[in-house]
Amino acid sequence: xxxxxxxxxxxxxxxxxxxxxxxxxxxxxxxxxxxxxxxxxxxxxxxxxxxxxxxxxxxxxxxxxxxxxxxxxxxxxxxxxxxxxxxxxxxxxxxxxxxxxxxxxxxxxxxxxxxxxxxxxxxxxxxxxxxxxxxxxxxxxxxxxxxxxxxxxxxxxxxxxxxxxxxxxxxxxxxxxxxxxxxxxxxxxxxxxxxx
Length: 196
Description:
The chain is α/β, with parallel strands linked by helices. It is built from eight helices and seven strands; from the N terminus they run ββββααβααααβαβα. InterPro entries: GTP_cyclohydro_II (IPR032677), RibA (IPR000926), RibA-like_sf (IPR036144). GTP binds at residues 54-58, 96-98, 118, 153, 158. Pathway: Cofactor biosynthesis; riboflavin biosynthesis; 5-amino-6-(D-ribitylamino)uracil from GTP: step 1/4.
């Protein structure tokens, strides 16, 4: 795996004061084209022995545009509040649309508008229900000398995958549903095994 690590800078936010480090990963996208993914590690000023960690995949529509179709923006904000309070880090991975990219995600949204759920839409487009890759996370953990974490997640797949790199304790992250994302959350629970 080829990657670079930036310097670390200060990041004051409305959630608290953090440090910010970028990881540039040289990889291929879901369609096999070479690309660079620039991921972020947003960490508290100091890390406890067992830090609280949120592995958050980019969701432009939820994180930036406050979409009500998903729970991503709410989870991001809650995670930053908890990390500022308890100490830890948020790994912001540039894997939009569970790894299918923004263009394909919007096409999946259009299929959802016609009645398909999030899993069916990805599969209709010829993609797996979850195409994300977490190999860079192992390098992030090495860089920060982490051997054990409390992972903010409802996704058992993330627990299994990250257990290759560190000892993982699970800490749930629950966001209040709304009328636009209730079905989405039900699909995550029933078809993807999320602990909701």
